[in-house]
């Protein structure tokens, strides 16, 4: 069957058997080998991908079922080639990985948590990664990594976002009011994110 | 760990789905697939056709209706978990849902799928049995509503008619009084299959006496069962009363033995968890304001 899947923002097509899992399709047809094939029956979490932003097991989904969703793999998290997301970098900083087999799944599961909750409690982090098995770290440093990334994200300047007018863009005139609005927005974002752990 | 070949169809409406299912003896419904796909991967199931009902219109959603909370079969478990209506009207389901699989499987697994798969240790069937929900199926002949006692036949075995599928489940809402719930489970590791699970819901009157009670036990036998603890009605529940009631109700409990737990262990833990769930439910109900 022919499938058209939206993966990391790009529409890609493949000819697959109905029994081919999304995991195998990502790896074999699209060479996105960051989704790891572990147990292949939904126990280990190594194959986790984001489907419309929610972590799911790509081994428990057939490619023919996956059209119409926004699929994000670990390859889609880095802001630019050769760079790491804040969360990916936090895993390196805290030694949140050893062999690395579970890491893409761990990162995608916790990425979804941080998208939803800026200051997750330890319990929330544990719950978020409870479906991902790691046989090296003992989980302690993985939890640290997520806490560290959450802290960094809270302290980072909030992105200015596309909602604010670009100075000099057509139809807008740079004015004192614009600057004030931008400054106000930044201050507001900084205060909003300064809640600290719950 | 690769499934055997099958054909895949995605019907556009319920009538088409029922037609395909009744025309193919080896057709099988797939929704979230969180139970079925592992079974396919291990080749414990080898259907000729998979009929994908996940995106069928009208089969998803949660609504309150005539004293019942109605959950569409393809409603994702995570949607039920986060639904304010479930938290408000069906606290027992809200307490049980975090025990269903893991967050990533709840993101895709459905409420109806859990019922239709009828795993003896699954939490959603246990809540359905405990509260005596109504499970609605549909096939080419029309709709059929069943009690959980009629619906669940044995392990992974239900009374869904050939060529039919589960379309919704109607959980009764206990209205009026102060209500509390309790849920406990023992498994080898968090979110693994339960050896024993217990779900309880209790209503108390103004004088603090129990006015309505329900207790269900899962994982022990070949399907979840409701235990008759009606002797607690009219009583102020304490440890002695509770133990006597659960002891009497759980006396003839059917239990299975396997590699993980003996039948005797399961019965013992069922009595213990049943009493704990009831005690929690009673305490929670008492703590609520009179309303």
The counted number of beta strands of chain A is 5
Helix and strand string of chain B, N-terminal first? EHEHEEEHHHHHHEEHEEEEEEEHH
Instruction: Detail the poorly predicted runs of chain A.
Output: 160-198
The share of residues in helices of chain B is: 25-40%
The count of β-strands of chain B is: 14
Overview of this protein structure:
- With 198 residues, chain A is α+β, with helices and mostly antiparallel strands.
- Helix content of chain A is 35%, strand content 12%.
- Chain A has helices spanning 22-29, 86-93, 103-116, 122-128, 140-155, 176-192, and strands at residues 2-7, 10-15, 48-51, 54-57, 70-72.
- Chain A has a five-stranded mixed beta sheet with strand order 2-1-5-3-4, with helices on both faces.
- The radius of gyration of chain A is 19 Å and the shape is globular.
- The model of chain A is unreliable at 160-198 (pLDDT under 50).
- Chain B has 291 residues and is α+β, with helices and mostly antiparallel strands.
- Chain B has three domains: 7-52, Uridine Diphospho-n-acetylenolpyruvylglucosamine Reductase, domain 2, CATH 3.30.43; 62-172, Uridine Diphospho-n-acetylenolpyruvylglucosamine Reductase, domain 3; 178-287, CO dehydrogenase flavoprotein, C-terminal domain (Enolase-like, domain 1), CATH 3.30.390.
- Chain B is built from eleven helices and 14 strands.
- Chain B is globular and about 60 Å long.
- Classes of the chains: A alpha+beta (198), B alpha+beta (291).
- The interface between A and B is medium-sized, with 27 and 30 residues.
Please tag this protein with its features.
heterodimer, A: 198 residues, alpha+beta, Ubiquitin-like (UB roll), 3 domains, 6 helices, disordered C terminus, B: 291 residues, Uridine Diphospho-n-acetylenolpyruvylglucosamine Reductase, domain 2, Uridine Diphospho-n-acetylenolpyruvylglucosamine Reductase, domain 3, Enolase-like, domain 1, five-stranded antiparallel sheet, four-stranded antiparallel sheet, 14 strands, globular
């Amino acid at each position: 069957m022919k499938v058209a899947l939206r993966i990391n923002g790009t529409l890609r097509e493949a000819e697959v058997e109905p029994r081919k899992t999304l995991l195998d399709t990502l790896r074999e047809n699209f060479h996105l080998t960051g989704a790891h094939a572990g147990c292949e029956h939904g126990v280990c979490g190594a194959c986790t991908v984001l489907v419309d932003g929610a972590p799911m097991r790509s081994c428990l989904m057939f490619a023919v079922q996956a059209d119409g969703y926004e699929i994000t793999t670990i390859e889609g998290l880095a802001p630019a080639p050769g760079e790491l997301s804040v969360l990916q970098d936090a895993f390196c900083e805290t030694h949140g990985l050893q062999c690395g087999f579970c890491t893409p799944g761990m990162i995608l599961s916790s990425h979804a948590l941080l998208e939803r909750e800026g200051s997750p409690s330890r319990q929330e982090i544990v719950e978020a990664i409870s479906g991902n098995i790691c046989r090296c770290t003992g989980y302690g440093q993985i939890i640290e990594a997520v806490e560290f990334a959450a802290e960094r994200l809270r302290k980072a300047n909030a992105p200015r976002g596309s909602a604010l007018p670009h100075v000099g863009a057509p139809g807008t005139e740079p004015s004192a009011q614009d600057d004030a609005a931008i400054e106000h927005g930044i201050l507001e974002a900084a205060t909003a994110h300064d809640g600290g752990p719950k | 760990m690769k499934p055997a070949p099958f054909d895949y169809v995605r019907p556009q409406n319920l009538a088409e789905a029922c037609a395909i299912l009744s025309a193919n003896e080896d057709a099988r419904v797939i929704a979230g697939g969180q139970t079925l796909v592992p079974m396919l991967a291990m080749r414990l199931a080898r259907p000729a056709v998979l009929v994908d009902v996940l995106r069928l219109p009208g089969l998803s959603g949660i609504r309150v209706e005539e004293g019942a909370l109605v959950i569409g079969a393809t409603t994702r478990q995570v949607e039920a978990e986060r639904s304010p209506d479930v938290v408000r009207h069906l606290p027992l389901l809200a307490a049980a849902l975090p025990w269903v699989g893991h967050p990533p499987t709840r993101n895709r697994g459905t409420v109806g799928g859990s019922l239709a798969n009828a795993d003896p240790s699954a939490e959603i069937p246990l809540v359905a049995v405990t509260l005596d929900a109504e499970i609605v199926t549909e096939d080419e002949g029309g709709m059929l509503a069943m009690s959980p006692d009629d619906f669940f036949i044995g392990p992974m075995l239900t009374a869904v008619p050939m060529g039919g599928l589960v379309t919704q489940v109607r959980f009764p809402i206990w209205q009026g009084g102060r209500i509390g719930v309790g849920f406990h489970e023992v498994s080898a590791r968090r979110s693994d299959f339960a050896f024993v699970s217990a779900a309880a819901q209790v209503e108390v009157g103004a004088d603090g006496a129990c006015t309505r009670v329900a207790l269900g036990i899962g994982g022990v036998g070949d399907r979840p069962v409701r235990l008759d603890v009606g002797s607690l009605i009219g009583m102020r529940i304490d440890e002695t009363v509770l133990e006597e009631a659960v002891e009497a109700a759980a006396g003839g409990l059917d239990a299975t033995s396997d590699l993980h737990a003996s039948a005797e262990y399961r019965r013992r833990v069922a009595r213990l968890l049943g009493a704990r769930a009831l005690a929690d439910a009673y305490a929670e109900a008492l703590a609520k304001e009179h309303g």
